[in-house]
Model the fold of this input.
Amino acid sequence: MVSAEEVSALTAYAASLGEVPPVADGRLTLADYFRLVQRIAVAGQDETCHLSRRTLKPGTSDFVVETIGGARDLEDAMRRIARAYNLVHGGDYNRVERRRDAIAYVVDDAGFPYAVGRDSGAVHALMEGVLIFLNLLLSRVVGADLEASLRSVRTRRHARTAPDGFLAIWKAPVRCGSAAYVLEYDLAAARLPVVANAAEAGRAAHVYEAVAALIAKRERAAEPRDFPGRVKAALISGASDQAEVARLLGVSVATLRRRLGEASLTYRSLRAEVLNMQARTLLAGRRHPGDVAEQLGFSDGRSFARAFKAWNGVTPARYAAGPPAQDRI
Done:
């Protein structure tokens, strides 16, 4: 999840454009962050999402990628990308460094014309998102997952404040408090050949698709296999609706639905299962059906009675009088 401080400037700008940010308790899932960036870049006609005083028209990233055409290898492609971004941003903020046993793409934002404070959460979020984008862009350029060659990721963020967010996506070591934002690869990766269609493969829309796929892959790897069980646990704990369940699980509502769909389930069916389990427990404890209906949030006793009979074949009153034989142990 992306914190309230990190998304505040972005969501305020989105709201000014008439976009509705998918924020729960001031936070966004990482996937929703990238989707929001794409939407407001188009709506606001600025790829920096208004976080820079120097706007970049939509399509700028595609223009930068076009400069890769004719690159010999990864190092050549990195240098072309850095040079192109420096031209469009009007400053020497990007560079490629050869180190003893590594090659690094460095984004040094000292002096960059941010519209907000350079050390704000919004800027850290923006730049850490840029590192994710760059790694996926370079991976597509060489047609291979470069994370296997990634030695370290460096951010100017002073300290890691949460186990999730932008930094959780990396498998390589992450170092905070750096003087710049850096992707450092094994030197051997510098000679990886560029694929024939590098410029097309690196189109911004394709890279964002790769970002979404990577996030989904990380979600599946990080979550326990029993995702429906986690949803039921959230419902049992008192979560009132689908959005709250998604927030508690650290995913978007769309991801919640997709993950349940993969198990051939729906949120509605799981909610009914939990409500039925709670209703049966309360009724078996000799609670009055009206009280149970109120406690479980039904609008009235009749709607509860209809639902309970559909689930169990008997009315709440009949069940309260004595559970069916198959429920007795």
